[in-house]
Design goal:
CATH class of chain B: Alpha Beta
Oligomer: heterodimer
CATH architecture of chain B: 3-Layer(aba) Sandwich
Helix content of chain A: over 70%
CATH topology of chain B: Rossmann fold
Helix content of chain B: 25-40%
Order of helices and strands of chain B: EEEHEHEHHHEHEHEEHH
CATH superfamily of chain B: P-loop containing nucleotide triphosphate hydrolases
Strand content of chain B: 25-35%
Number of domains of chain B: 1
Distance between the termini of chain A: 26 Å
Order of helices and strands of chain A: HHHHHHHHH
Structural class of chain A: mainly alpha
Number of strands of chain B: 9
Strand content of chain A: under 5%
Number of helices of chain B: 9
Number of helices of chain A: 9
């Protein structure tokens, strides 16, 4: 059933995201033409047109990024908590499957948005003089660096980049879950459901920051600080190992926050659902 | 085995008692009218049966199951409002129901849609309110469910559409199933009912068969309803 939910979720979201991706790619071609000559022309009309094309490209990038987030929130709200909820919440599927389908599809659109934006940037940069020079400069920089790099740094560097990407990806999923939790909690109220949802979102944000801040404060000259020092006594971590450990702790922390939001969302949808 | 049973079922919303110690048993093969004035608790009872609300006290079971993922597979539910996704075309909606319900009879749905001259490519949002309600009813009645829960199926539609809706219900429900029709428009549904449940202020006032009412009280269900709920 999860597979079917995902299929219909892609159907519902694809009709918005795919045309937007197409618009972004078309505007990137326009921006490329503009960068390759229209802006330097002596004809005023072409100059203005070139500027407009670059502006359209910038707006398209902004639109695609914003829309992927808006769509993620809007699908959860409209599909599960508004009128469509009467159909969706009476399907022979569990609340967990509903949330996972929304989460997976949103995460795929986030990832695709990054890919398409990068692709659009490549299209804009294609055969443009100064960009070619910039790329050449980077190539030389990497060639110089590679002389001093050995396999240890190459592998660790790649792992750190992958961990950084994992942090970003898990962070996006946690952001989705925070929106879902706030909406589920707000919509359990009898009145002013959206106002309550906004309030809950900021309350969750505040609680998260308070907790993270308190944890950081505890790490500085406190019982936790001494406990960790005693625990890690005898450890001899290199700089890269310590960085990787730190990144893993951050990912773990994100997963933990995500789990709390996930629990809140499922609990409120199961026990406190209150469709109008 | 009873298809729907409620034992001491209560639901409170803050200080408001929406349902109070409701005991009902609905057997298969019966068309039951859940009758009561506005705000009497009809929709709350149907929402509880669908797992859209959780009881404050007591229990409700559908085919012996607590409302949830498993019970949803044997219940066909028509909400009081149009809830089908409006961005879908008719074909996409048929795909959707076919994907999720093993008992969905696509050929029956397509036949009913063709009878109403609804093009398969048409999007739900391009339809009038009345047509949307008919499409939603067709989807609900095209399932071979064990229990049909129809919340105000004839509320807010013209008399011709009312006749169409009632004939669709009678002509398409699974004869081994139970049908619960919630309404306050008694005169229109009386002719199709086997049993009635009168509900007021969250309490069951009466549960009897239509024949029993006619024989014992010597009046129609509509007349009895007017007498019981006289203001």
């Amino acid at each position: 059933m999860l597979r079917k939910l995902i299929k219909h979720e892609f159907r519902a979201t694809g009709r918005v995201m795919l045309p937007l991706f197409l618009v972004l790619l078309v505007t990137s071609v326009g921006a490329n033409f503009s960068a390759r000559g229209m802006l330097d022309t002596r004809y005023k009309v072409l100059d203005v047109l070139g500027s407009l094309l670059v502006m359209a490209f910038a707006i398209a990038i902004f639109g695609v990024c914003v829309m992927s987030v808006v769509l993620m929130v809007q699908r959860f709200y409209k599909n599960l908590l508004q009128d469509e909820g009467y159909v969706m919440m009476t399907l022979p599927v569990s609340v967990h499957q509903h949330i996972w389908s929304k989460l997976i599809v949103s995460a795929v659109w986030f990832a695709l948005t990054i890919v398409v934006v990068c692709l659009a940037a490549c299209i804009v940069a294609f055969d443009v003089g100064f960009v070619q020079e910039l790329i050449q400069g980077f190539r030389e920089l990497f060639r110089e660096l590679s002389q001093y790099l050995n396999a240890y740094y190459a592998i660790n560097g790649t792992v750190i980049i992958l961990e950084f990407l994992a942090i970003c990806f898990v962070g996006c999923c946690v952001m989705c879950l925070q929106f879902y939790a706030a909406l589920a909690m707000g919509h359990s109220s009898p009145n002013h459901k959206m106002a309550w949802s906004v309030l809950w979102f900021f309350a969750l944000q505040f609680a998260t920051q308070l907790l993270a801040g308190s944890l950081l404060a505890l790490l500085d000259e406190s019982w936790l600080h001494h406990l960790l020092l005693a625990w890690t006594e005898g450890w001899h971590l290199s700089g890269t190992a310590a960085t990787q450990l730190m990144m893993l702790i951050v990912i773990l922390g994100e997963v933990l926050y995500g789990a709390v939001y996930y629990f809140l969302t499922t609990w409120f949808l199961k026990k406190r659902l209150n469709l109008e | 085995m009873a298809i729907l049973t409620c034992k001491g079922l209560s639901k409170r919303f803050g200080g408001t008692q929406a349902l109070d110690q409701v005991d009902i048993t609905i057997e298969p093969g019966r068309i039951v009218g859940l009758l009561g004035p506005n705000g009497s608790g009809k929709t709350t009872l149907i929402k509880l049966a669908n797992g859209l609300l959780t009881p404050s006290e007591g229990e409700i079971r559908i085919c012996g199951l607590v409302p949830g993922k498993e019970s949803h597979a044997c219940v066909s539910y028509l909400p009081e409002r149009t809830a089908i996704p409006t961005w879908m075309s008719v074909t996409q909606l048929l795909d959707f129901y076919q994907d999720f319900y093993a008992d969905f009879r696509r050929d029956a749905a397509e036949e009913m849609l063709a009878h109403l001259n609804i093009p398969p490519k048409q999007r739900i949002k391009q339809m009038s309110k009345g047509t949307r309600e008919k499409v939603q009813l067709i989807m609900v009645m095209s399932r071979s469910a064990k229990l049909y829960l129809l919340d105000e199926p004839i509320g807010g539609v013209d008399p011709a559409t009312r006749d169409y809706i009632l004939s669709t219900i009678i002509g398409n429900y699974n004869p081994d199933a139970a049908v619960v029709i919630s309404t306050h428009l008694i005169a229109d549904v009386e002719k199709v009912l086997d049993d009635v449940v009168f509900i007021n202020q969250g309490r069951i006032m009466l549960q009897a068969s239509v024949d029993q009412i006619r024989e014992e009280k010597g009046m129609s269900v509509d007349a009895l309803f007017r007498e019981v709920f006289k203001c």
